[in-house]
Amino acid sequence: MNLNSALFSSVLTLLCLCNLSDQASLKDDLTLTYKQKRILDKFRSVVISRLPHEYMKKDIYLVRWLRARNFNIPAAELMLINNLKWREENNIDTILEEDWSDFEREFPIDIQGCDKEGRPVISIPVGDWDIRKAVLAGKQQRAMRFFDKLYEEITTYIRVSQDKGENITQFDVIFEMSNYNLIIQGCAMCIPVYGHFLRVYDYYFPGTSHSNILVNVPNIFLALWELLEPFRSTQDQFHLYGKNTMEWQAALLKFIDKAHLTKQFGGVKNEPFTLDELKSDGGHFQCPKYAAHHSAL
After folding, report:
1. How many angstroms separate the CA atoms of 45 and 66, rounded?
2. How far is 293 from 259, CA to CA, in rounded Å?
3. Confidence at residue 30, expressed as pLDDT on a 0 to 100 scale
4. CB of 83 within 8 A of CB of 72?
């Protein structure tokens, strides 16, 4: 093993010290102590008159802002109000009504299934996303807005599923990095786009992701990862795995059953779902359906 390979393995080992099973469970996400419930009730009374939508007045929404700011009411209030301002200034309430067909073709996202606690598992083929092409075509701002749209779409579908009786509060993301190219995905002009992707999550959709797993991570990605460190949330864990397929597949299978993963990720399904298929179901994520769909016979 050469020096670079040894360094890469050491870095990945350090980044993965927090086991995926150490993530908060669904029960933890839905449970409050008596003190936290008192804080939540007070927080609601402070902000409720400024909330434009009914879903924003629910406990499961309000507690996200409190958790993101360690149940500090003034800090959570500021964060939430800044979010409302951002949503109004950027027309987020109507972003799903815009035509995104061009970007949906160029930047696909798949739905693998659900994890063992029922959360949707999303996979993103980062190595196939040509961010540089979009930037050179003068679409940097549209690419950033596309990421806004993705967050809004996924969290909207989670709310729809909650209204249908599903116990879903978060999602998992698998970032597939095998085709990552420093020129195409790591160009200097691309960094603001990735920074936006991370910053928008941290500021405006806090706590909605349960696990963020990067697999088949190449050595050259680590330099970009360090540059993106200021944009990454301290509230959410990122788990990076290199090219050792057995290692990262074993990590995934600890919290996702084979029936809910494609063969690419160590599962038995031939193909994943698409966001369009979920959209055709009215955004209602039904865990059993995803296990049966496209599974190998």
Report:
1. 14
2. 9
3. 67
4. no
48 vs 294, higher pLDDT: 48
Whether residue 134 is predicted with pLDDT greater than 50 in this model: the reply is: yes
Give the residue among 119, 115, 118, 117 at the shortest CA–CA distance from 261.
115
Cα distance between residue 38 and residue 43, in whole Å: 9
What pTM was estimated for this model as a whole? 0.85
Q: DSSP string spanning 85-145?
A: HHHHHTTGGGGGGS--HHHHHHS--EEEEE-TTS-EEEEE-GGG--HHHHHHTT-HHHHHH
**Would you list the domain boundaries of the chain?**
3-22+98-292, 32-89
| Domain covering 3-22+98-292 in this structure, CATH number | 3.40.525.10
Look over the chain and give the mean of its residue pLDDT values, rounded to a whole number.
86
Domain 32-89 sits in CATH at 1.10.8.20
Q: Are 128 and 179 in contact (CB under 8 A)?
A: yes
| Kind of pairing between the strands at 171-176 and 120-124 | parallel
Across the strands, what pairs with 238? 212
Does residue 20 register a pLDDT over 50? no
CB 273, CB 130: distance < 8 Å: no
- C-alpha neighbours within 13 Å on the C-beta side of residue 142: 18
